[in-house]
Amino acid sequence: MTTVAVQTQAQRKRSPLAGYLLRRVGTSVLLLIGVTIVTFLLTNLVPGDPVSAALGEGASQNPATREAFIKAHGLDQPLFVQYFIYMGNLLRGDLGTSLVTGQPVTADLASAVPATIEIAICAIILSLAVSLVLGTLAAYRRGLVTDQIVRVVTLIGLSVPTFWLALVSFYFFFLQLRIAPGSGRISPSIIPPPKVTGMYTIDFLLNGDGVGWADAMAHLALPVMVLSLVTIGLLTRFIRTSVLEVLASDYVRAARAKGLPAMRVVIDYVLRGAALPVLTVVGVAFGALLSGTVLVESVFAWPGLGTYAYNSAANLDLPGIMGVGLIVGIIYLLINFVVDLLYGVLDPRVRIA
């Protein structure tokens, strides 16, 4: 057997999807290294004295105490040496100690990240479900009253500031109507569930606590509603545009000409054809929900990643800031990787690109 035949046989045995995934994993690793570099450099460029922030104004004025802190944390080393020290600690899972809470940053993030994931997952599921219906309906009723109403509603959702909507919702539903619970993840009378995932709704279910689960869901309602209204505006407009493009394609017209049921045409042809661009926007929206909920979390006293990031920045907590920056970077990398994976599964052309 010739060398060319052996190579051809090996290429046939190699899965296109496996090669596609390997390329994406390699790219993600390089991007992750880039995230650590950018996070480290930007954090060190923040104006202010990290020694004073860590020790306080009184202790930082003592030359011996100040010098001991600088040597202990390698702040007297060149910047590239500090980066390698940071990477060494990072590979051991050590992100430092928060100057605000006095706890390891990893422990703080382990508590804050699940709280944000819980609210973001609920918001993106609700947003996608509503947007698919509204966007598809607006596309099918293009130029009619239904389309105009949907476009106006989505425009309002995109234009209203998130923090204003959160404040109005809290005031109206909690302070005035008293139909929504107060701030926080659960009521003071409810004992938090044993930690499994860190997401209270899931942990209450795993613990068989129906009362706690209902209370956690009630506290989720307002923040999820606020985040969903903004996200629905973005997704609906994009889904409408994508569906309109697919409706003009030949294969959709052929499916209609065959006399296929309208619902089958929508599900099997229209939505499937519009899935790839919509998937990209959903990934971006989900990443924005995970990393940009600081205003909503502040209004509803939700102890998530946004609140932790704000407290770290306000108190010049450099370990906390670097930890948040790293987590946000990893979140976007993971979301992009999952989107790329789904691209490869849904569209065979992507695998060999």
Q: Average pLDDT across residues?
A: 82
Count of helical stretches: 17
Radius of gyration: 25 Å
The helical percent reads: over 70%
In the CATH classification, which architecture of the largest domain applies? Orthogonal Bundle
Name the beta content range. under 5%
Quick one: CATH superfamily of the largest domain? MetI-like
Termini, distance in Å?
29 Å
- What is the number of independent domains? 2
Based on CA inertia axes, which overall geometry fits? Answer: globular
Give the low-pLDDT segments. 4-8
Protein name: Dipeptide transport system permease protein DppB (TC 3.A.1.5.2)
Subcellular location: Cell membrane
Main location: membrane
Keywords: Cell membrane, Membrane, Transmembrane, Transmembrane helix, Transport
